[in-house]
Amino acid sequence: MASLNKVFIIGNLTRDPEVRYLPSGAAVADVRLASNRRYKTQQGEDKEETVYVNVSVWGRQAETCGQYLSKGSPVLVEGRLRYEEWEKDGQRNSRISITAERVQFMGGPKSSSEYGDAPASRSSETPAPSRGGSADFGGDDQGDADDLPF
Question: Which CATH architecture has domain 7-147?
Fold first, then answer.
């Protein structure tokens, strides 16, 4: 039987990333995303629902997230779902979270008062392009909007 565990989600951080280091020296950043979905009901009423999801980011990406992201930062996360179970005070608990394989910073440059002195539009995997962004999702944003094929 074939299986696939892949997820893409775009959202905004609900709090600053929390970076910690394991005894092995590996960095782990815990972030929480809010992703909104807007839709119309059968009666034509506009509705919006928000999904909150925990994301674990590992290694150098975790350090980069801690350095350049803050509450409200828009990001695209590519990763896999993880099911966790634990027991606390005799209660069995469970949740589904995401283990990030890649985090793409999506916002344009922000003012220093909003995000510190760090540029907000950077991929955590690659050096920053000269004008921000990355070609990984949606093409090369180095050109003008007139260059778009649609």
Answer: Beta Barrel (2.40)
Q: Are 129 and 142 in contact (CB under 8 A)?
A: yes
- Closest-CA residue to 126 (of 135, 117, 118): 135
Identity of the amino acid at 132: G
* pLDDT per residue as tens digits for the range 18-65: 999 999 999 999 999 999 999 999 999 999 999 999 999 999 999 999
Residue closest to 47 by CA, chosen among 39, 35, 58, 56: 39
Of the chain, the percentage scoring pLDDT greater than 90 comes to: 70
- Altogether, the residues listed in the chain come to a count of 150
How many whole angstroms separate alpha carbon 115 and alpha carbon 95? 31
Q: Are 85 and 59 in contact, with CB atoms under 8 Å apart?
A: no
Torsion from C-alpha of 21, 7, 78, 108, nearest 10 degrees:
-110
Tell me how far apart the alpha carbons of residues 59 and 96 are, in angstroms, rounded to a whole number: 21
Parse the chain into domains and list their residue ranges.
Answer: 7-147
Nearest Cα to Cα of residue 62 among 32, 30, 29: 29
Q: Which residue in 52, 50, 74, 56 sits closest to 122, CA to CA?
A: 74
| Residue scoring higher pLDDT (91 or 109) | 91
